Amino acid sequence: MRGRRVSPAVAVVSVDRPRTLRYRKAAVEEPSGPGARHVLGTFVLGLLLAGGLAGLGWAFQSDTFRVRQVTISGASPAVQQAIEDLVAPGCAESLAGPIECPAGNLGPNELTLNAGGIARQVEQLPLVKSVQVKAVLPNRLQISVVERQPEAAWLVGTETFRVASDGVVIDRGPRDGLKVVVGQVAGEAVKPGDHIDVEIIKAAELLQERLPADFGIPPKRIEYSPVDGLAVIGDQDFIAMFGPPRDLNLKMAELQRIVQLAKDKRAPLGFVDLRYKTPYFRTR
Fold it and tell me: Cα–Cα distances in Å, from 17 out to 12, 20, 274?
């Protein structure tokens, strides 16, 4: 017994099988839980989507969101009437500005209303400089207008057209109180909505202001033609041709020299042509 070695006892425990069983059990049971939740979530989402679509369909077809009241500010009676006919034809005006639409003749649905498109249509009116269109849910429309103001009169034959500072021909009207009057003597007649070169209007205003003060030549009338440009007719049928409105200050300097030459000769001017590089003039 003394020379014999005894091996220590070893206990062996198998753990593979229980782990495998637990893993397999979990693998069988796990998919059933998330699958049920996924189906339930899909069902709820479908209900919400269907409800939302139904709500949108009701909103688009219901009279709740159709325009019942339109408020217009900053517009003259003619412009207001034009906007009413455009936005809410047939609706009755109740006050100076707001209009009420009867139940049988409501305006467009505000959920589908194109405010930018309405603004662009209103801006086509010659009197309208700018406009803002705002839909106020559920059924109101607010329109704010800034109108052009007439500054010049443009004469075509016996008709007088009023022109704004940006050159837009506004309408036919009186010339009283306007800065300058220009008579068109050739070319195609203008109409409201047309555009006249702003430089022509500015040059005519400058001539009307400076000729009496600097040269003692009060204009009886100022004329314009596409071929000859600007011309001033003064007392005793004096005519000064200025041509296009460009380089007007240089032309005025030449006119000053010519006026002085006429004074030195003690001969009144009858005609001056400043359209070309070398001016021409004659005395009476």
Answer: 14, 5, 115
Q: For the domain 63-147, what is the CATH code?
A: 3.10.20.310
Q: Write down the H helix ranges in 30-158.
A: 32-61, 77-87, 115-122
pLDDT digits (tens, 9 = 90+) for 62-75: 666 777 788 899 99
From 122, 176, 168, 133, select the one nearest 149 (Cα to Cα).
Answer: 168
pTM of the shown model? 0.71
Handedness of CA 82, 83, 87, 92 (dihedral sign): negative
For the record, the structure tokens of 233 come out as 């007719």
Rounded Cα distance, 226 and 242, in Å? 12
Question: In the block, which residue shows the tokens 């220009």?
Answer: 182
Pick the CATH number of 150-283 from 1.10.10, 3.40.50, 2.60.40, 1.10.1660: 3.40.50
**Residue entry with tokens 């099988």:** 17
Instruction: Confirm if 195 and 234 have CB atoms less than 8 A apart.
Output: no
- Structure confidence by residue, pLDDT tens digits, 1-17: 445 554 554 444 444 54
Which residue in 178, 145, 174, 130 sits closest to 78, CA to CA?
145
Cβ burial 158-177 (10 Å sphere, 16+ → b, else e): eebbbbbeebbbbbeeeeee
- Strand pairing category for 229-233 and 98-100: unpaired
Domain ranges of the chain: 63-147, 150-283
